[in-house]
Request: fold
Amino acid sequence: MRLSKLTASLVAAASICLAAGAASASGGEAVLKDEHFSFEGLFGTYDKAAAQRGFQVYQESCSSCHSMSLVAIRNLGDPGAPFYDEEHPNPNESPVIKAIADMFTVTDGPDSEGDMFERSAKPFDHFPSPFANEQAARASNGGAFPPDFSVLVRAREHGPQYIYSLLTSYEDEAPEGVDMRPGMNYNPAFKGGMIGMPPPLFDELVEYSDGTQASVEQMAHDVVTFMAWASDPKMEQRKRMGWMVMIYLFIFALLMYGSYKAVWRDVEH
Amino acid sequence: MSGYPGYDPKSGFEKWLDARLPIVRLGYDTFIFPTPRNLNYWWTFGAILAVILMSQIITGIILAMHYVPHVSMAYDSVQHINRDIRFGWMLQPMHATGASMMFLAVYIHMFRGIYYGSYKSPREVLWIVGVVIYLLMMATGFMGYVLPWGQMSFWGATVITNLFSAIPLVGESVTSWLWGGFSVDNPTLQRFFSLHFVLPFAILGLVILHVWALHVPGNNNPTGVSVKNVDKDTLPFHPYYTVKDGFAIVVFLMVFATFVFFMPDALGHPDNYIRANPVVTPVHIVPEWYYLPFYAMLRAVPDKLGGVIVMFGAIAVLFVLPWLDTSKVRSMRYRPLAKLFFLIFVLVCIGLGWAGAKSPTDLVFATAVDEHGVATGFSFLWLARILTLYYYAFFLVILPVLGLVEKPKARPESIEKSVLKSNAGEA
Amino acid sequence: MAETVSTSAQDPSRRDFIYIATGAAGAVGAGLFVWPLIDQMNPAADTQALSTTELDMSGIEEGQQIIAKWQGKPVFIRHRTQKEIDEARAVDVATLKDPQTDEQRLVPNKDGKYEPQYLIMLANCTHLGCVPIGDGAGDYDGWFCPCHGSHYDSAGRIRKGPAPKNLYLPPYQYLTDTLIKIG
Reply:
């Protein structure tokens, strides 16, 4: 075909453009561990048990510094979420979600006197933030700002692998030649190697109710699963819909091709 | 002309309406339109673009129902669309990915136009309207990318609006006029939202002009040979090309759906999931992939104003392309040298995109290590410079000169002959 | 027989089939795609999560009325006086435009008993949705809508004016004697 070269080059053009776009983010200096997660791939779903354990890790360890302000408590019981209960498809009515909500205290108001007051959280409340604002967070964390968890996995290149590596790559001693500033911790997965966050996980930090051994690697895997869900809570729905759309389009394409051949049947072209 | 009798209203109502508002006639004349019988799949991208434009307008109107153009709420409202609005998790990625799909299709459409000489007489105005559409698409896409108010939104807006400060004398006034303040801030966001909403309708209007300008001379075709005998050389657009375009559209939609449902983040940048922060610049600011070649040209020039001129000039040169190409032969099929230079041109555009994605100081390949142990060699800055030179040379030197010196191959006498011959050859 | 049928006679029906199938597939696809475009305007998940409100009425003094908000709509909560209750119960229900007894205007608490002092109603006039003036306004010691002159009595029943219905009651239930959940 005359156009085969042109075709090949244009396809190459498109794919390189796309690849360039994807690869355009900086990074790559830090070494990432190639951890695999249940939610990867075209059919991947969130491992609910891991996400539930991850929620426990978040609650008991991360949430004292890291907010997750875009996620509502009710979201934990949505379809595809860690605490989805088929008997209570409406998370606002789910006893599990209500029980989780009772664990939190939120500030509401103003009341009729004009004062703010504290009350126990309801499913519609969002996760309360540990600090009132960024300045307060920095002041309590030696100038570093603990990022919000809501979309963190999507906000980092290779998010799941990056966060997993970050949590599991702390080293007690910086290698020779690396000048550590006081208060900083050495972590080769972090850009530059110096990170303000002290190692957040250590073995047996939490006690899993399902008997899973709470090693650092296990907790890191679990909390990343939970954070990935928080970042993309509709992923399972989207993939399921995606397959239906693809199957439909494939059949429709075949029919279109059949029509095309039928219409052009008697025409030399 | 027996094959194209024109619209013939039959029923009384059709005649009555035709005398008052000949809208059925308009549709008939638009779709029962003599179209060369030898168009290949490269010609389907016009229809694909029409479909994506409509998809963008519809999803855009819907997103505007839920989006809040305010610096304190824009980011959260986009998240709200993805998390709480019914089907928002599908409609928002459709709109964001749709922009990339539209540029992908428009680039193929433009390369096709260049290869087959579709800009040459009598289709100069058709081409120019197309370039204006492309320019408006760039403006619309840029402003749309600002709306989610992530880090790349904010810093992309800052970098691009700062380009205008390079204009002598009035530069500073122009930028603060664009911003509505002294930096990219809420007034900027709000006007970008307004313009992002309205510009697509201007694009839609220009598309109608584009189709009108197409219908006067009719389609070009892969041979570049004009239609000589309507009955033998052409087919009515409907049903022949409606089904062919329809098939291509569905195949393209499969590519589109793959991105929307399975890799919605592949064409975006992770940093745009970080809330805009005016005091922290991302390590590496990159625009969306479809602007990368121009971004590379901007950075290729060491002078600020020079870079801006080179970048905008790269688009401006497209406007005069019909008069730069001196060859009387439309299709590069019959121009072996032009075809070669065209293929290099396509690769150059891709290479510019590659260079635009990299930091200028990054090395394409290293040749040596200096006394500090740092590798030195051929940097992306120099790659971008060389490729920018070729980009301009292609339009300003190669095409004008080639038309005078190149000896084209023999062309078929007519579209019909080319079709019969090639079929015989393949059999 | 089959051999004698010319292909030109056979093909059109096969072609018609594929055209119809293609057209049908396209129509079905377009139809399915339209649904998300429509459904996105329905109340979002966060809006639906806020569809219930809990309210403590213990702080409302006798003869006092507050306006709470439920699903973005105003709700009257009136702590009625004994006089208002008696007036409301003295009316001959048969003479009313929208006949309802006073008890039908209330919801029993957990023990199945009524708390007649608390009257809870949506605060929009059933005529065209204005918020009536309360605190014993109008000719019947209840509410009076200034927009088009509807008079409601002390049980929120329409007595005079253009409104067709009594003030609507929101769905609510008693959690304790003074705590209610609306919605």
